[in-house]
Task: inverse folding
């Protein structure tokens, strides 16, 4: 089964499962005052160290959450609420993940002002436009490192420099980039970085948030003071151990994995664009995640292509799974300046650790015929 | 190792692990539009049905969260914020879990008024005092079903009737009771019920919230509209499957398990109170969770007892693990009217699925000597 929807969900690496299994039997609560609790506490701290090492941070700058969506909520709501006395203006971009967009809308209803920076046709947000948007009352700038939906990688280090020079805090959503390209909180000058476990083949229900020492946020989940008082709730020890193991593996393997995936990505993009007329690449041709093949086809619906692909045992997506519940075209694709019908004709293939070159060959064999057949049924295509 | 700290953390049932393992390899995102996503979606919905069946609810009245703490936050903040136009008064009790207490304090800082009903020396909150506290502007009453810390079970059905008759919404924290005594949302007249996965031997990082049809709450985690739009973030499919399996097992086994545990509990309470002079039971002698042995010893510190017990490979607690980070005596024990030194002399043993009668015998063999030895070192004891 050529599963090519890694951006929507990844299987857990077998080595990660192995690391987790012993902790399923362990009843210890890291807050407990006995040896069984201590064992759990040590396991959590070891995992924290591993996640920190992957992003060039200190262990006490990483907290565990229930996933990237919670981390995005905590970073933005938590920072905005805690630092509202300094200003109530936030800068972000038009192509952020739906959780960021919805959090920003929520803050707008609660007295904050948000500027959404547009992007160019490749999905690049210009460093200058960020600089121009930052005002005296801007407290936070949130920019994704890379887009899972169109693959585009931002000039995040230059943006970080600008934000720092303007004395605003910088949040980076690294959900799509972690484990695929370098994520270094120092190089990025980031104050807050969202980290996903499942996107690096760790378990779901776990995520992380990097919080630079000295940066103050308010918790959004209140409880017993876990995670340095920033996130209540008993720690998901086995899940956290799994995330730690996934981070350790990612640190060792991401460079060679990225190289392997980029070759397959390029073969697939070239193959599709050559084999299917009126097909186009979404996102940037070079500044691009190594696993991302985002294409669009005129005269056909992406969703029809998905269903036909699925019948051939190929899984793909039309964009972010998190926004699949709406019939609206993706806000990310619209931000590129695509027309509605172009956005609707988009298909996203994302490769991963278990993708093989045969999978690419298989898709290249099946896809052109599917598009052709669907176009034959399309009145738009026949009338063209 | 006689682990007797099940209230702090439970191992995952082997049958639950078996149910989860196949989903670790499954990459499907329930929001994805293909067969792999559909498989994940079906697994989540099957688990939802199982959790609903355990509490006599409909499947579409249960949403999944990251744990009991999140469910408590979502229930109270989510209900209060959504229904603030109807009134800004909340009624709860003095012995709720720290997450509820902290959420109420947060709401108090944000324009809400909260009444904390005191309890009697057994930890029982009187139905009349709840009734008297409800005002015209009371929108929500939150009462725990049972206390993990002192074992006391509230007259939750009578409280539910009163709350309903006063047209307020009723939230029940069933974290400690689920799987140990009957939890029936209809009998309780509950509108919102907090459910924990790990407390019924499911995985951590997963919880549930029952939301009665028609009851409106506002999400606290914003994202892609998952969980009926009430909880953003990709579903933790394997974890949810595990919670469902744990609920299925709990439904089949809770009655016989409660009977078995209650016998051990009674043997242990009787044994301790007989063997150790000036030892007392915390909580109610009859209205009591079947797994809860909460005792206190004059002239000694609970924490010293814990450390000595741990050296004999016995794990216990001084109260809620979630409040262990503070040196303050437990707010629950203080609410019973205990003096500081009585609260500090408390030790909590909680039994569970893997507790054996030999464990009880072993504790009864070791504990009296430990208390005796510690008392010999206590100036208070010698001066008595």
Result:
């Amino acid at each position: 089964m050529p599963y090519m929807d890694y951006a929507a969900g990844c299987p857990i690496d077998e080595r990660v499962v192995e690391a987790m299994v012993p902790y399923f039997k362990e009843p210890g609560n890291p807050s407990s005052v006995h040896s069984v609790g201590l064992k759990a506490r040590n396991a959590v701290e070891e995992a924290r160290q591993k996640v920190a090492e992957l992003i060039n941070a200190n262990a006490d700058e990483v907290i565990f959450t229930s996933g990237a969506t919670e981390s995005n909520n905590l970073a933005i709501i938590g920072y905005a609420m805690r630092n509202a006395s300094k200003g109530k203006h936030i800068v972000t971009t038009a192509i952020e993940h739906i959780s960021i967009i919805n959090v920003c809308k929520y803050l707008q209803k609660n007295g904050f002002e948000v500027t959404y920076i547009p992007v160019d046709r490749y999905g690049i947000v210009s460093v200058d436009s960020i600089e121009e948007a930052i005002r005296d009352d801007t407290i936070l700038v949130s920019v994704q490192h890379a887009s899972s939906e169109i693959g585009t990688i931002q000039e995040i280090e230059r943006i970080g420099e600008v934000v720092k020079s303007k004395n605003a805090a910088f949040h980076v959503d690294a959900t799509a980039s972690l484990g695929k390209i370098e994520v270094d909180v120092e190089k990025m000058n980031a104050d807050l970085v969202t980290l996903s476990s499942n996107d690096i083949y760790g378990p779901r229900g776990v995520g992380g948030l990097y919080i630079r020492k000295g940066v103050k946020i308010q918790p959004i989940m209140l409880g017993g003071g876990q995670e340095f008082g920033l996130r209540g709730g008993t720690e998901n020890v086995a899940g956290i151990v799994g995330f730690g193991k996934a981070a350790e593996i990612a640190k060792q393997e991401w460079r060679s994995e990225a190289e392997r995936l980029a070759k397959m990505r390029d073969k697939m993009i070239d193959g599709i664009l050559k084999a299917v007329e009126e097909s186009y690449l979404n996102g940037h041709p070079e500044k691009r995640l190594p696993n991302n093949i985002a294409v669009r086809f005129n005269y056909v619906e992406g969703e029809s292509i998905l269903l036909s692909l699925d019948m051939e045992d190929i899984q793909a997506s039309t964009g972010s799974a998190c926004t699949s519940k709406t019939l609206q075209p993706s806000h990310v694709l619209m931000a590129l300046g695509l027309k509605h019908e172009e956005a609707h004709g988009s298909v996203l293939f994302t490769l991963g650790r278990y993708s093989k070159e045969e999978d690419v060959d298989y898709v290249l064999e099946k896809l052109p015929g599917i598009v052709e057949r669907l176009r034959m049924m399309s009145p738009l295509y026949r009338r063209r």
